[in-house]
Amino acid sequence: MGFVVLPDETLEDLQIKGLYIIQKKDSFRFGMDAVLLSNFIKAKPHQNVVDLGTGTGILSILVSAKTDVKSITGLEIQPDIAGMAQRSIDGNNLNQRISIIKGDIKEAVSIFGAATCDIVVTNPPYTKVGSGRINNLNSKAISKHEICCSLTDVLTSSSAILKPQGEFYMVHRPERLTDILAGMRKVRIEPKILRMVCPYQGKAPSLILIKGLKNGNPGLNIMPDLIIYDEYGKYTKEARIQYSMDL
Question: What CA–CA distance (Å, rounded) separates 207 from 202?
Fold first, then answer.
């Protein structure tokens, strides 16, 4: 099956297992956060994964490439973006492992059922509405700002659909860390692993990767920082591994 690419879209080579993704030319395009989160996730073959707010489907596709998990379902509220994600799944012949559903994160329980998911992964909007400038209410704005769902919505729905001891993985911004930790505990997702992503050694983090466990016991493991660039502005060895450059 070939890729159906519309005039306002591009087909990008993901440079892993011959996979590609369709993206809008002038809209939100996946970045480092999706790649890093996909490497942070650990999943076993018998488990099922739900990708809340899948967007173009990038995280679902990368997780399928990097794990042997049996099924991944991406949930996306924007019909055109969900359709684009489905065309990427079709083009990559991943329909037996990945499903795309058009729906609202706030309705996740009615879509998936309570306590049915082994793993929830999410790369949600980072910015609270009102704390950043929004030029147009388009897919790029929806991807960046909490227009269709808030952090609380994401955490509440994740907790509701996770099985007891189910795993939660998220990438977010460090300035939201207090909200994230407090919010996770409020919905009984115990923070278990935290990793800061820093552009350079000694610089403040630009991203955080966090894993939580539904109904888990207290105890947070803070991993060493992930440094992206060395002093010469080149990818560090670990960053190259993250991007599958040194495999």
Answer: 14
Q: What is the mean pLDDT of the chain?
A: 91
Topology, domain 9-242: Rossmann fold (3.40.50)
Look up tokens 């450059």; give the residue: 245
Q: List b or e across 209-241, with b for residues whose CB sees 16 or more CB atoms inside 10 angstroms.
A: bbbbbbebeeeeeeeeebbbeeeeeebbeebee
- DSSP label of 235: B
pLDDT-derived band at 139, boundaries 50, 70, 90: low
Sign of CA dihedral 74, 205, 26, 152: positive
pLDDT digits (tens, 9 = 90+) for 187-217: 999 999 999 999 999 999 999 999 999 999 9
The token pair at 71 is: 């099924």
CA 21/CA 246 separation, integer angstroms = 22
Query: Which H/E stretch holds residue 10?
Result: strand 9-13
Percent of residues in the chain assigned helix, strand, coil, to nearest 5: 30, 30, 40
